Amino acid sequence: MVRNLAGIAKGMSITFREMLQPTIVENYPDGPGPLRGAVFEQRFRGAHVLQRDENGLEKCVACFLCAAACPANCIFIEAAENTAENRISSSERYAKVYNIDYNRCIFCGYCVEACPTDAITHGHGFELASLNATNMVMRKEDMLVPVSALTAK
Ligand code: SF4
Ligand code: SF4
Fold first, then answer.
1. Does ligand 1 have an atom closer than 6 angstroms to the CB of 68?
2. Are residues 87 and 140 in the same domain?
3. Contact criterion met (CB below 8 Å) for 75 and 110
4. Quick one: which of 102, 90, 27, 23 has its CA closest to 62?
5. pLDDT per residue over 47-92, tens digit each?
6. Within this chain, do residues 17 and 53 fall inside the same structural domain, yes or no?
7. Are 34 and 59 in a shared domain?
8. 109 CB within 6 A, ligand 1
9. Nearest-angstrom CA–CA distance, 145 and 7
10. Is any atom of ligand 2 closer than 6 Å to the C-beta of 115?
């Protein structure tokens, strides 16, 4: 009984102490900057980004390891062969189609960890909600870093 009361008193002391601290709020979506007031930790796992190498080629080599690692089975890839006339990645194959179904993705990061070429990463994109489930399937074109972003560096 005494131990229980001591536990309750200890818990309430933390509650009262916190009540006297200044309130910290994020002024999203009315804050300044491109994030409109949202604040992220560096390691926040947001929308995926498909990366390019220093030559502008796509890093994805269509090895399917990310799809195999995905516990939600939400990555769909169609591979195609690079040719001399049409080189998309530096390897034999590239992802002709690369979709992630955000209706199912749980942002676990397993795909990022599984990728041998660092082709897929988590960005900080977070405004992904939609009332239409078909809008939640992101295509390669939605996720791929534009070539202009490389030249701007
Ligand atoms: S973050 Fe997880 S659930 Fe989402 S695509 Fe990657 S492996 Fe699948
Ligand atoms: S994103 Fe990485 S793991 Fe997935 S298919 Fe491309 S190269 Fe392979």
1. no
2. yes
3. no
4. 90
5. 999 999 999 999 999 999 999 999 999 999 999 999 999 999 999 9
6. no
7. no
8. yes
9. 53
10. yes
